[in-house]
Amino acid sequence: MTQFPAIQLRKVQFDPTKVRRDFPILQTKSHGHPLIYLDNGATTQKPRAVIDAISHYYEAQNANVHRGVYELSQIATQAYETARATVQRFIHAADSAEIIFTRGTTESINLVASSWSRAFLKAGDEVIVSALEHHSNIVPWQMACELAGAKLRVIPMNDAGELLMDEFAKLLNPRTKMVAVNHLSNSLGTINPVEEIIQQAHAVGAMVLIDGAQWVAHSPTDVQKLNADFYCFSGHKLFGPTGIGVLYGKRAILEAMPPFMGGGDMIRSVTFEKTEYADLPNKFEAGTPDICGAIGLGAAIDYVMGIGFENFEPYVDELLAYATEKLSAIQGLRIIGTASHKAGVISFVMDDPVISPLDLGTQLDSQGIAVRTGHHCCQPVMDRFKINATTRASFAMYNTREDVDALVTALKKIIGAFAAKSPAVVAPKSMELKYPSATAASPELAADQLAEVFEFLGDRDARNEYLLELGEKLLPLPAGLKTDAARVHGCMSTVHVVGHRRAGDGHRLDFLGDSDAHIVRGLIAVVQKLFAGQEAKAILAFDVQAFFQRIGLEQFVSAQRRNGLQGMVQRIRDLAGKIEFAKNL
Ligand code: PMP
Q1: Could you tell me what percent of the chain has a pLDDT over 70?
Q2: DSSP label at 435?
Q3: What domains sit in the chain, N to C, each tagged with a CATH number?
Q4: Are 289 and 267 spatial neighbours (Cβ–Cβ below 8 Å)?
Q5: What gap in Å lies between CA 233 and CA 56, rounded to an integer?
Q6: The whole model's pTM is what?
Q7: Is the predicted pLDDT of residue 311 greater than 80, yes or no?
Q8: Of 105, 492, 526, 582, which has the fewest Cβ atoms less than 10 A away?
């Protein structure tokens, strides 16, 4: 059982049933079950008020902003600028010109990392981020540091997922020019002591950017009180639309920065000799903005403020405490991220029986429960805990104790089924390695056989079940062969593929694969049936994408899903390519 501070379960007066009625999607089903949406850290659902604001904009207000002399354009401009004023009030900025609309947190951070760094980051300077950052608050700073010749330094964290403030103090020095940290961690749910971070960074003359992507929907934000130099967030994690986000910056700093992008709307005058830039905020909003997105975000903020943080924040905190209590009571489940100040997010792994997050996520999905699995765009966090991925449930005001109970019941069922399975087939020693032979005379014929099976199975659940069964039977790779060279990187699960030309028939490819996720092991088995022992030339000529579509594996195919199938097939094609290349030498 996981050890962490005692939880206070409070009785909180807030009725989520009324709120739930505002979200049409929560009345829908997923795989025949009522949708239980626990992926609010990735994006939140949209209330009717936001959907209506978006429809109304396109039905009655659509025109380009800032340009037209006609009434409709003025209506659109007014609605867009009203949304800016709403954001200003929401985060208590001193001036609406300090609110820059962007595409989201990622673009806001990139804007600062690009534009501010161009003017103010020099060789030998230092930028500090934390070990808890989302990739979008790491990579832009790495790029900026590389360009400027500056150094990126990292605040470490402890085993609970809390930043080590003593270490932070040691990192600060007169060369520190920027400190960029998140307010609330998306991977572990840690609330970071941003007030303290800002004070200490300012004491050495550094700027501070706060990534508030997860925070703004959880608690009130006051950028003036915080004294943050920059504050970033996304509309879609705040019950608003995707494609819109906010960069708040202090006026004097934004004025001193060069523009991020050039184009229409960000200029005062243009000649071929010289362009004068527009005042804030337009200087940073080149091109036609996401007008409708801003209006939708304004509606989302009005909605949230209408309900009131004071009403739903204690409720969501209590829900997290309840989920923590219930999940930590599950034998073999380990919660990752046990900070004393946490909000909204619970991440965990299954140690006994070992169940990969991908398998858990896939099985929960088949019961209508949407959770996130993977590294959550926080690979350094996963590395810190020596894991590849977690399963994460993240909560919003419309979630209920019943949602948590359904998650716990489903988890127990999945764990029970895994535990009841026969112990995993023992990995052979490498000298005993047996490569599977071809299942048919060509990949095309093997494909026909597989297609027949999948057609017979029919629905998605039966196909998933079949994949899991195949995965169970797949012979594990010996540990010695699971080298970094054999690893297929970029997958949500750990995948290894080893292969070479067949001894005695150098035109054919022998290969084996393995993964920590049963579902991926099943996919490996399918790929083996298709390609194992086949001629390299035939493997290269086979249209594998079309085949995956044919047997209904679209859900596993897209590169974005990063579940291994695509990478695995590419590795096999690379191996086949090498055989063909050698043959033609
Ligand atoms: N930072 C944090 C803490 C996040 O959770 C996210 C989204 N998961 C981002 C940044 C990036 O946000 P977006 O994709 O909306 O730009």
Answers
A1: 94
A2: P
A3: 16-41+310-420 (3.90.1150.10), 50-306 (3.40.640.10), 443-583 (3.90.1010.10)
A4: no
A5: 25
A6: 0.90
A7: yes
A8: 582
Q: Is 211 in the pocket of ligand 1 (CB under 6 A)?
A: yes
Q: Decide whether any atom of ligand 1 lies within 6 Å of the 234 Cβ.
A: yes
Question: What's CA 491's distance to the chain center, in Å?
Answer: 14
CA–CA dist 376, 186 (Å, integer): 7
Q: Residues with Cβ < 8 Å from 540, sequence gap 6 or more?
A: 573, 576, 577, 580
CB 493 within 8 A of CB 520: yes
Q: Distance between the two ends of the chain, CA-based, in angstroms?
A: 59
Rama region for 370: left / alpha / beta (φ>0; ψ in -120 to 50; rest): beta
pLDDT of residue 418: 87
pLDDT at residue 188 in the model: 98
Tell me, what's the pLDDT at 503? Answer: 83
Q: Are strands 369-370 and 36-37 parallel, antiparallel or unpaired?
A: parallel
From ligand 1's centre to the CA of 53, what distance in Å? 24
Distance in Å, CA 176 to ligand 1 centroid: 24
Tokens of 128: 């500090």
Least confident interval from 39-53, 254-268, 477-491: 477-491
Q: Is the CB of 136 under 6 A from ligand 1?
A: yes
Residue 128 β-bridge partners:
153, 179
Residue partners of 417: CB distance under 8 A and separation at least 6 = none
**Better-scored residue on pLDDT, 584 or 397:** 397
Residue among 136, 139, 237, 376 whose CB has most ligand 1 atoms within 8 A, to mutate: 136
Structure tokens at 168: 């932070």
Closest residue by Cα to residue 437 from 537, 511, 362, 513: 511
Note the pLDDT tens digit of each residue in 113-163. 999 999 999 999 999 999 999 999 999 999 999 999 999 999 999 999 999
Enter the tokens of residue 557. Answer: 């195919």
Distance (Å) from CA 130 to ligand 1 centroid: 15
Q: Is 212 in the pocket of ligand 1 (CB under 6 A)?
A: no
Other Cβ atoms closer than 10 A to 37: 23
Say whether the peptide bond before residue 281 is cis (omega within 30 degrees of 0). yes
The pLDDT tens digits of the residues spanning 500-553 come to 888 888 889 999 999 988 888 999 999 999 999 999 999 999 999 899 888 887
Q: Which helix (H) or strand (E) holds 293?
A: helix 291-307
Distance from the Cα of residue 259 to its chain's centroid: 28
The SS3 call for residue 133 is coil
292 annotated active-site: no
